[in-house]
Specification:
The structure is a single chain. Strand 2, helix 2 and strand 3 form a beta-alpha-beta unit. The chain is an alpha+beta fold. The chain is globular and about 60 Å long. Helices cover 28% and strands 19% of the residues. Bound molecules: flavin-adenine dinucleotide and iron/sulfur cluster.
């Protein structure tokens, strides 16, 4: 049985105290929110902090403020269950409600927070293993080793961004409020991430994410689709997050972001640009799905085969766009059954486990 190493748990009740405690204990300390990712990772010795600064007692970091008209402010400590069921989120930011509602399992969504999901560690088949397993293969550069076992000639780590909400928040144009020793700052979520499996966040280690800020939702529709092996719970091996601002049936603004295809969420701006100024016809949806296929470059370091995951980008982008074409903005409900497994309309049919997807997939 894997056990947690010893550590000291500090429980600040204000953001100011959390920042101060981190400044006092860095680099030996880490923040912990729900602990649903960090504690298992500590059991596998992927992280070995001697001090944990718990964020659960900070009331100011929890709850949803504002409105869809002015924009929503979601405290980073808000549980995923609360995010996925909040009426303003389900009614006006449906893709986010879907993404939050598809993270892991109900128990973990009750404990896990939106801030923790935004900051969740990148993943790789050679890294998310016990200490003994990793030792047997002589470790890798993300922890305890020198080389990348996926791409031995590479000087960087290619571990995969595996957050469900990050690509959706990116497409929605969310911002992130950070508090650190130098004060507060508000940054676009797109700049929180960087394409490196180890240093995947651009924020300073001493900065805490306090809020996620969503822009006003008027005219916007959004959808999130997730590919994973088990419908009950699993990390995404592909996430497709689409947000469209509609004027009648004409697309005025569009954003398509792919999850789990790189070390950070990967936008597909060319595909989004094709949509602007047009109706969502079947031909346009096909053209945009083809264009979205190009930026997604999954590697062979997570579940299901990478050629299959690449193929599914086109399929899932088309499905997401079709679902938005069919729904009037006022009924932009969360696509709760948007996951690949439970919904008959959203199943990667007989390819569900990648059996027929071996081989090389060319970029068109
Ligand atoms: C079996 C299993 C299945 C899972 N499936 C999924 C899945 O399908 N999709 C998915 O996205 N995730 C999944 N997860 C990962 C995890 O449960 C979620 O990502 C969850 O949202 C993490 O939130 P948390 O509050 O528990 O984060 P924690 O574990 O507390 O923290 C995660 C990381 O974020 C940092 N952090 C947390 N909050 C803050 C903050 N406010 N400011 C700065 N840093 C912060 C921590 O230091 C840590 O590095 C799964 C985990 C398990 C164990
Ligand atoms: S991508 Fe390479 S360096 Fe990164 S976790 Fe995987 S094997 Fe390790």
């Amino acid at each position: 049985m894997m056990r947690l190493p010893e550590f000291t748990y500090l429980a600040p009740v204000s953001v100011k105290d959390a920042v101060k405690l981190m400044a006092d204990h860095e680099p030996a300390a880490m923040f912990v929110a729900g602990g649903t990712d960090l504690y298992p990772n500590m059991k596998r010795r992927q992280f070995e902090p001697s001090v944990l600064i718990g964020l659960r007692g900070i009331r100011d970091m929890s709850g949803v403020r504002g409105s869809s008209k002015t924009g929503l402010i979601i405290g980073a400590g808000t549980s995923l269950t609360a995010v996925s069921s909040h009426p303003d989120v389900t009614g006006h930011y449906a893709g986010l409600a879907t993404a939050a509602g598809l993270v892991s399992s109900p128990q973990l969504r009750n404990m896990g927070t939106l801030g923790g999901n935004v900051c969740v560690d990148t993943r790789c088949n050679y890294y998310n293993q016990s200490y003994e397993w990793r030792k047997a293969v002589n470790f890798c550069m993300k922890k305890d080793g020198d080389i990348c076992l996926v791409a031995p000639g590479s000087s960087r780590c290619w571990a995969v961004s595996s957050s469900d909400t990050a690509p959706m928040l990116w497409s929605l144009g969310a911002q992130v409020r950070l508090a650190g020793p130098k004060g507060e700052r508000l940054i676009p979520i797109s700049t929180l991430y960087q394409d490196d499996g180890i240093q995947y966040l651009s924020k300073q280690p001493g900065e805490v994410v306090t809020d996620i800020v969503l822009p006003p939702s008027e005219g916007w529709r959004s959808a999130y689709l997730k590919l994973r092996r088990r419908g009950s719970f699993d990390f995404p091996v592909l996430g497709v997050a689409v947000a469209l601002r509609m004027d009648g049936d004409i697309v005025r603004e569009a954003a398509i972001t792919l999850g789990a295809v790189a070390s950070q969420p990967r936008p597909a701006p060319e595909a989004a640009a094709l949509l602007v100024g047009h109706r969502l016809t079947p031909e346009l949806i096909d053209a945009a799905s083809d264009a979205a296929f190009k930026p997604g470059k999954p590697l062979d370091n997570t579940d299901l085969t990478h050629p299959y995951r690449k193929k599914m980008i086109r399929v899932f982008v088309a499905r997401a766009l079709r679902s938005l074409a069919q729904e009037p903005a006022s009924t932009n409900r969360p696509n709760r059954l948007a996951d690949d497994q439970p919904a008959a309309t959203n199943r990667p049919n007989h390819l569900a486990h990648g059996q027929h997807a071996e081989g090389h997939v060319e970029d068109k």
